Amino acid sequence: MKIKVSEFVVRYLERLGIKHIFGMPGAHILPVYDALYDSKIEAVLAKHEQGAAFMAGGYSRASGEISACITTAGPGATNLVTGIANAYADQQPILVITGETSTHIFGKGGLQESSGEGGTIDQSALFKGISKYHKIVERTDYLPQVLNRTSQILLSPSSGPVVLSFPYNIQQELIDESLLDHIKTDSTNHPLHDSSAAINALADKILAAKHPVIVAGFGCIKGHAQDVVAQLSEQRSIPIASSLKAKGVISEGSPLSLGSLGVTSSGHAYKYIVERADLVIFLGAGFNERTSYLWDDALLKDKQIIQIDSNPEQLEKVFKADMAIPGDIHEVISGVLQRIGADNQALDLLNETSQYIEQLKRSANSDYAIFQSGFSVIEHLFSRIEQHFPEGAVIFDDNIIFAQNFFKVSSGNRYYPNSGVSSLGHAIPAAIGARFSNQKTTFAILGDGGFQMCCMEIMTAVNYNRPLNIILFNNATMGLIRKNQSQQYNQRFINCDFINPDFEALSKSFGINYKRVDSNSDIDHVFENSDLTNSINLIEIMIDKDNFPNYSSRR
User: How many helices (H) and strands (E) does the chain have?
Assistant: First the structure.
């Protein structure tokens, strides 16, 4: 049976497990939209294509599944760039479908043409550096091969965005429906081969170390390895420092948690590793600029280093390891646990290690993010989130530094910092995307500068009745820029301050709830009297623009 390419593409999306596709229609992609009309896939209309890409990213992060977004040609595709770059940096499996002008007018200057012919926008060049695979599908005869390559990337451990562009006339051509059966759309596990030697060697190193420490990255969460990592930590009393993206790998209230490692953190994890550790085990952690304190040599000096990652490209990318093991983190650590067995001295080790950590956390550390007065309301906010939602809350955070230091993430909550390319305006659309994947209480945390880049997407949440709590920090300035200009540029402030709208009136125009917070009692009132699970709330928290944490950006 022959069907149109537009329907073939939608059937492929269905087989990939796509349930929602975020985007905006345009003339050049309407055949695919028309095929979506009869599909179970819900087409979600965003307010801007960048927002659609961030929504797809938020959906993927919260669900762990492939997500999708769709736009028209020309500006529809170009508006995606920041969102797709963010997904590429975060290795998010996002399938991007865009339209294109018909092939017979390539090079003639068609409206919104992106073929790269005749001086038009070259969409392939535009997406080349921010996608794992990009293809303008100009013929139907190789479409199955293109989709097989797409599946291979989206289903791989080191996934990333794929961008497929379909010319208008190609979308309406006919193709044999049975070809769908030859396209791979389900994942296949890739077991380790000959892993026993590596597992035995790793177990021996752990047993021989006096003070091992684990640095857990997002790969632990992505690989569903939290349980075995926590078990190894408890069984051998090994403290865990997480990357920012991996907050909550183990509950940060645990006596073995060092909190997150990074330049905007308290520095407790850094001090433990530098002053005490003799073996550092990296589990799915890329050791990027933020985590590594700008690749500070002192952090890993005179230590044995083990790195385990499902993505071989991450192994020894930054540092030389004594052991670099490519493979599934859950499988490797499970093997280590079987090899090590129970330890009769675990309780004594736990007491000694936890006492050292507690003493470390009580000591002053002026080199890192010490908060003086003026932030008690924000600290109280995160305390109430911990108390009110100990399990199941989802937090998308563009601000980062406050949550990194004040929010003790439980293993039952999910914290998603604005990683990737760290674009302002990310939290709200990403959190909206996440709400399409689950019914968990969700927060979007951001500053007033970032808010004004994405606030129009609140209406997407309203249109689709997706509950969301927006925590808005109002200091009428670009906080990081003002801090840096204050600390490093002799208070020569330029392009950091601005006038905000009336956020209460704006909330009313959106038809959502509004609360202003000036004190701890205001925070208590919000948590005691607001529906934070089933409604859309904008909670505005006032901050002094000249009150900064004392960390240095080291720039």
Answer: 22, 20
**Tens digit of each residue's pLDDT (9 = 90 or more) over 426-446:** 999 999 999 999 999 999 999
- The C-alpha atoms of residue 228 and residue 303 are separated, in whole angstroms, by 24
Q: Residues 454-479: pLDDT tens digits?
A: 999 999 999 999 999 999 999 988 88
Helix (H, G, I), strand (E, B) or coil at 264: coil
Q: What pLDDT sits at residue 555?
A: 46
| Residue 279 in tokens | 């073996």
Domain at 196-362: CATH architecture: 3-Layer(aba) Sandwich (3.40)
At the fourth CATH level, the homologous superfamily of domain 2-182 is: Thiamin diphosphate (ThDP)-binding fold, Pyr/PP domains (3.40.50.970)
Each residue's pLDDT tens digit, 238-268: 999 998 889 888 888 888 888 888 777 777 8
Neighbours of 113 (CB within 10 A): 24
Residues of the chain with CATH 3.40.50.1220: 196-362
User: CA end-to-end span of the chain, whole Å?
Assistant: 62
Distance CA 551, CA 406 (A): 15
- Which has more confidence, 219 or 312? 219
Average pLDDT over residues 328-351: 79
What DSSP designation does 246 have? G
Q: Count the neighbouring beta carbons within 10 Å of the beta carbon of residue 119.
A: 9
Q: Domain spanning 376-542 has what CATH number?
A: 3.40.50.970
Residue 409 CA: distances (Å) to CA of 253, 350, 382, 403, 470: 8, 21, 10, 9, 18
Q: Where in the chain is the domain with CATH 3.40.50.970?
A: 2-182, 376-542
- Who has greater pLDDT, 157 or 349? 157
Instruction: At 169, list the tokens.
Output: 């006339």
As a whole number, mean pLDDT of residues 63-80 equals 95
Nearest to 214, CA basis, from 136, 361, 329: 329
pLDDT at 116: 77
User: What pairing do the DSSP bridges indicate for beta strands 212-216 and 279-283?
Assistant: parallel
Neighbours of 140 (CB within 10 A): 15
Q: For residue 129, what are the contacts with CB-CB under 8 A and spacing of at least 6?
A: none
Residue with the larger pLDDT of the pair 259 and 175:
175
Is the CB of residue 183 less than 8 Å from the CB of residue 151? yes
| CA 422, 424, 427, 429 torsion-angle sign | negative
79 neighbors 49 (Cβ within 8 angstroms): yes
CB 411 within 8 A of CB 248: yes
Phi, psi (degrees; rounded to nearest 5) at 174: -100, 145
The answer to whether 216 and 283 are in contact (CB under 8 A) is: yes
Are 498 and 545 in contact by the 8 Å Cβ rule? The answer is no
Q: What is the pTM of this model?
A: 0.91
Return the minimum-mean-pLDDT range out of 76-85, 172-181, 209-218, 399-408: 399-408
